């Protein structure tokens, strides 16, 4: 049994060792959040060569592609005018294109010769415009200009019409021998395609708004003469601006 009066013996040499260990600056506390690594030594020419090889592999491996569906009634015109569609996409936009008869789509893909980042999107918009019914001469403007868009809406989005009322609305938009449609196109500097109950408008944002407002007025029952006067006023204002 230990006695209460037992003396505790402390070695003076142990105290000296402990004090020396605390005062030693070489013994630092571990900091896991700040590891110290030796600087990495690499050959600069080898590193640059590896970077070039990696970038070249990335360019070759990453080829974007798009598929544009073609409606059945536009397949025959597409075959007839394939050369006119093929040439600008391959020669000017530097894209790869093919017609997939089985899936009824036109497939576009970038290649190492493609330099323009927006070439694929412009090419897809061009093919889509032709599939909607626009002429090649009008759709090719999508490849050359930046601020052109296609707006699509249906007659039922404006007003629910059926039977003879729907036929009369389409007739008001087209006009006799297409006169009303041509007038809207010339006044607003757009191109309009009437595909049954769907209406496609090609042009700039501001011009599309002008043409859409005129078409909506005709759908709602406004007489063509009133729409002509409105377009004439808008056209004169546009000429004054420029």
From TrEMBL:
<dbReference type="GO" id="GO:0005730">
    <property type="term" value="C:nucleolus"/>
</dbReference>
<dbReference type="InterPro" id="IPR055211">
    <property type="entry name" value="KH_PNO1_2nd"/>
</dbReference>
<keyword id="KW-0539">Nucleus</keyword>
<dbReference type="GO" id="GO:0003723">
    <property type="term" value="F:RNA binding"/>
</dbReference>
<comment type="similarity">
    <text>Belongs to the PNO1 family.</text>
</comment>
<dbReference type="InterPro" id="IPR004087">
    <property type="entry name" value="KH_dom"/>
</dbReference>
<dbReference type="Pfam" id="PF22891">
    <property type="entry name" value="KH_PNO1_2nd"/>
</dbReference>
<keyword id="KW-0694">RNA-binding</keyword>
<feature type="region of interest" description="Disordered">
    <location>
        <begin position="29"/>
        <end position="71"/>
    </location>
</feature>
<feature type="domain" description="K Homology">
    <location>
        <begin position="147"/>
        <end position="220"/>
    </location>
</feature>
<protein>
    <recommendedName>
        <fullName>Pre-rRNA-processing protein PNO1</fullName>
    </recommendedName>
</protein>
<comment type="subunit">
    <text>Component of the small ribosomal subunit, ribosomal RNA processing complex (SSU RRP complex).</text>
</comment>
<dbReference type="InterPro" id="IPR036612">
    <property type="entry name" value="KH_dom_type_1_sf"/>
</dbReference>
<dbReference type="InterPro" id="IPR055212">
    <property type="entry name" value="KH-I_PNO1_first"/>
</dbReference>
<comment type="function">
    <text>Required for small ribosomal subunit (SSU) synthesis. Has a role in the processing of early nucleolar and late cytoplasmic pre-RNA species.</text>
</comment>
